Amino acid sequence: MDQTNEGSLAQVRHVVLVLSGKGGVGKSTITTELALALRHAGKKVGILDVDLCGPSIPRMLSVGRPEVHQCDSGWVPVYTDAQKSLALMSIGFLMEDPDEAVVWRGPKKTALIGQFVSDVAWGELDVLLVDTPPGTSDEHLAVLENLKKHKVDGAVLVTTPQAVSTGDVRREITFCKKTGVRILGIVENMSGFVCPHCSECSNIFSKGGGEELAKLTGSVFLGSVPLDPLLSASIEEGKDFAQSFPDSSTFSAISTISQTLLNSLQTD
Question: Which GO terms describe its molecular function (predicted)?
């Protein structure tokens, strides 16, 4: 292992990519909530946000636009808590203007991602979640090429229940198979709407598409997460949903997904 990786990823036990075949399925929300659930389970977690066109996780974790510092091993991640149990590095931290569109050609994007993946001094982590852009583009290949110098345990695929979304995730599954990335499981997001008044769940976008896709492709179905106004508000305000609503069925669903994922990683 080269010195760069030794400084940045040597003490990271597990690396998990979070992928989606299309935008708008809540991939960054799932990444954030999985990280928080793992932290509540006593794990040290990192999030690497390489979504060039929409780096939204800093807002979701309410860290703003901190100044990124460097040490001998590379960039120092931003910690979201005093215990340093949740670390974040986002491409959004490196943008001079948060409202500026990233209008770059492929080589410039892949060069930045390559540096970004290799040069963060994570220290000791149980799990590093990598929030990728939607689709199967140059950016994904750049992430994989640089992370594979270390180790990638696999990918979690996020979909919504409708056929138009699960169809795109099929292509993501093909991408994983072609690039040798293990599929750790599929999460169905926006699976029903939880009424804030009576807690009844209505299936606005249909239901079961993610589970059906998992069966058809021989993948693990990790679980489903409903549309929950309380979760949406927590994400908007940068609050810890698990801490605010520990008894909610939505948190129970997220917690079960994170535990299933953790068990899968630990039994490798």
Answer: 4 iron, 4 sulfur cluster binding; ATP binding; ATP-dependent FeS chaperone activity; metal ion binding
